[in-house]
Amino acid sequence: MRTSFVFSEVVTGLRRNVTMTIAMILTTAISLALLGGGLLVVRMVDKMQANYAGKLEVSVLLTNDVSANDKDCTQQPCAGLRSALEQTSGVETVVFQNRDEGFERFKRIFEAQPELLKLARPEAIPATFRVKLEDPDRTDVIKQAFEGKPGVKGVDDQSKFLERFFEGLNGLRDVVLILALIQAFAALLLISNTIQVSAFTRRVEVGIMRLVGATRWYTQLPFLIEAVVAGIIGAVCAVGLLVLGKAFFIDRITRNLTESGIIPPVGYLDILIVSPWLFLTAIVIAATTGYVTLRLYVRL
Amino acid sequence: MIRLEHVSKVYKTSTRPALDDVSVEMEKGEFVFLIGPSGSGKSTFLRLLLREEVPTRGRVYVSNFDVAKMSRRRVPRLRQSIGCVFQDFRLLPTKTVAENVAFALEVIGKPRNTIVKVVPEVLQLVGLDGKEDRFPTELSGGEQQRVAIARAFVNRPLVLIADEPTGNLDPDTSQDIMLLLERINRTGTTVIMATHDHGIVDSMRRRVVELSFGKVVRDDARGVYGVGR
Ligand SMILES: Nc1ncnc2c1ncn2[C@@H]1O[C@H](COP(=O)(O)OP(=O)(O)OP(=O)(O)O)[C@@H](O)[C@H]1O
Ligand SMILES: [Mg+2]
């Protein structure tokens, strides 16, 4: 295979219909950027799940009365509740956190939001049992057993909140991936169309190639490589879009949440890890579309 | 070398066969004229040799290729051993003379150093040395046909097929092209040429196979165009 020959054919091919090539590259780029965005959300959810795994707790919030008067949990009903919790099967540890400690913790989490801190008063923070379970999914047991007991204001289940949060993220991921899919379909049609136009403009040349005994590979490879090269350029643009998106968009809107450690930040490393998949997708889609187009619509 | 056994070809869109039970044999090194009125099946005959078409019935052999039966994958091999020239030259307008000839070798994967050696040789053979950097539009019709012949011959084919190669040329230029085809024939290459040109056939006195309505109606070893008609 004469690579220089194939290469020069590809370059002339791409230059011959510049407008189509640009359209093809842009569509591919947007589609891949959306796919990349979706993959980043997936990574974020995974990271968060790993972060919170084992750390998830059920908080048993105590009434105002207990919070105000029983700083060390030595009186009833607090002491009774503690031993009841410790004796519940499936409970790993029980930590008592009084109102002042709770307020300190709140201040640490939200130190990036001074406006919020100004509004907060220790009186709003109840004393709490932070209960860690052996199986983090079995939170219902605690809720059923302790909700409504004297001294208990409520049972707060972090996993329920996180579940809802993950649901939101997964919804976002699905929307992004569906958009990516639609855009990918447009890219696919454009690739197919470009190849057909390209094959038509080169029909004389291809006719001669066939006549002098060029193999199928020789006649078709330039078209395939043309599509794949455009796909790769599209993937490069997509990675560029993700980097720009991170620097000017995602970083800004998620700064508060990431700085307080609630959600992990999207790093350049994440984009780096996601991008090989974008290249792979681009190459596979361009090559298969090219191949199928040549087989079905272009008689070479 | 070339053998057709009871070959018939019926195109899908027509009822009358383009070739009707044709059996002919041509030896290595022969020069054969294929004549007959328009629509008698000359081009169809040549396309069957190239496997541009497959016969409806019968068998076609070229060298040791069973042309009608061979797999698509082997067709390039067959075509690499056949050179083709047409009435309309079929040169690439964006390539120079030398590039047009080199193209035929590039696309079948010949190495660069072979190409730079044989292209000037064949251009000299066809009498185009000094014009290798011209574009087809900068050449006369006769010169363009020489480029086409150079391209057909550069890979030293066993057979050279020419479908009305002088159809677009004036008599003098045609004569030059015939001298060139004769020279190529003398290297041992079988030449099969479809033509309407009485003068050429009569002056060359070579084998003449005449087709009429798809049938072989005459096969003279040293024929002329139209005996007794
Ligand atoms: N691709 C095709 N599809 C259908 N019919 C065809 C096709 N090619 C040729 N024919 C028919 O087959 C017959 C033989 O055609 P062919 O081209 O072989 O004739 P020819 O002898 O080369 O004529 P000419 O001297 O005009 O070139 C004609 O009747 C023609 O209409
Ligand atoms: Mg014809």
UniProtKB/TrEMBL annotation, chain A:
<keyword id="KW-0132">Cell division</keyword>
<dbReference type="GO" id="GO:0051301">
    <property type="term" value="P:cell division"/>
</dbReference>
<keyword id="KW-1003">Cell membrane</keyword>
<dbReference type="Pfam" id="PF18075">
    <property type="entry name" value="FtsX_ECD"/>
</dbReference>
<dbReference type="InterPro" id="IPR004513">
    <property type="entry name" value="FtsX"/>
</dbReference>
<dbReference type="InterPro" id="IPR003838">
    <property type="entry name" value="ABC3_permease_C"/>
</dbReference>
<keyword id="KW-0472">Membrane</keyword>
<keyword id="KW-1133">Transmembrane helix</keyword>
<dbReference type="Pfam" id="PF02687">
    <property type="entry name" value="FtsX"/>
</dbReference>
<comment type="function">
    <text>Part of the ABC transporter FtsEX involved in cellular division.</text>
</comment>
<feature type="domain" description="FtsX extracellular">
    <location>
        <begin position="57"/>
        <end position="155"/>
    </location>
</feature>
<comment type="similarity">
    <text>Belongs to the ABC-4 integral membrane protein family. FtsX subfamily.</text>
</comment>
<comment type="subunit">
    <text>Forms a membrane-associated complex with FtsE.</text>
</comment>
<dbReference type="InterPro" id="IPR047929">
    <property type="entry name" value="FtsX_actino"/>
</dbReference>
<dbReference type="InterPro" id="IPR040690">
    <property type="entry name" value="FtsX_ECD"/>
</dbReference>
<feature type="transmembrane region" description="Helical">
    <location>
        <begin position="221"/>
        <end position="245"/>
    </location>
</feature>
<feature type="transmembrane region" description="Helical">
    <location>
        <begin position="20"/>
        <end position="42"/>
    </location>
</feature>
<feature type="transmembrane region" description="Helical">
    <location>
        <begin position="175"/>
        <end position="201"/>
    </location>
</feature>
<keyword id="KW-0812">Transmembrane</keyword>
<protein>
    <recommendedName>
        <fullName>Cell division protein FtsX</fullName>
    </recommendedName>
</protein>
<keyword id="KW-0131">Cell cycle</keyword>
<feature type="transmembrane region" description="Helical">
    <location>
        <begin position="266"/>
        <end position="294"/>
    </location>
</feature>
TrEMBL record, chain B:
<feature type="domain" description="ABC transporter">
    <location>
        <begin position="2"/>
        <end position="227"/>
    </location>
</feature>
<comment type="subunit">
    <text>Homodimer. Forms a membrane-associated complex with FtsX.</text>
</comment>
<dbReference type="GO" id="GO:0022857">
    <property type="term" value="F:transmembrane transporter activity"/>
</dbReference>
<keyword id="KW-0547">Nucleotide-binding</keyword>
<dbReference type="InterPro" id="IPR005286">
    <property type="entry name" value="Cell_div_FtsE"/>
</dbReference>
<dbReference type="InterPro" id="IPR027417">
    <property type="entry name" value="P-loop_NTPase"/>
</dbReference>
<keyword id="KW-0132">Cell division</keyword>
<dbReference type="GO" id="GO:0005524">
    <property type="term" value="F:ATP binding"/>
</dbReference>
<protein>
    <recommendedName>
        <fullName>Cell division ATP-binding protein FtsE</fullName>
    </recommendedName>
</protein>
<keyword id="KW-1003">Cell membrane</keyword>
<keyword id="KW-0131">Cell cycle</keyword>
<dbReference type="Pfam" id="PF00005">
    <property type="entry name" value="ABC_tran"/>
</dbReference>
<keyword id="KW-0472">Membrane</keyword>
<dbReference type="InterPro" id="IPR003439">
    <property type="entry name" value="ABC_transporter-like_ATP-bd"/>
</dbReference>
<dbReference type="InterPro" id="IPR003593">
    <property type="entry name" value="AAA+_ATPase"/>
</dbReference>
<comment type="similarity">
    <text>Belongs to the ABC transporter superfamily.</text>
</comment>
<dbReference type="InterPro" id="IPR015854">
    <property type="entry name" value="ABC_transpr_LolD-like"/>
</dbReference>
<keyword id="KW-0067">ATP-binding</keyword>
<dbReference type="GO" id="GO:0005886">
    <property type="term" value="C:plasma membrane"/>
</dbReference>
<dbReference type="GO" id="GO:0016887">
    <property type="term" value="F:ATP hydrolysis activity"/>
</dbReference>
<comment type="function">
    <text>Part of the ABC transporter FtsEX involved in cellular division. Has ATPase activity.</text>
</comment>
<dbReference type="InterPro" id="IPR017871">
    <property type="entry name" value="ABC_transporter-like_CS"/>
</dbReference>
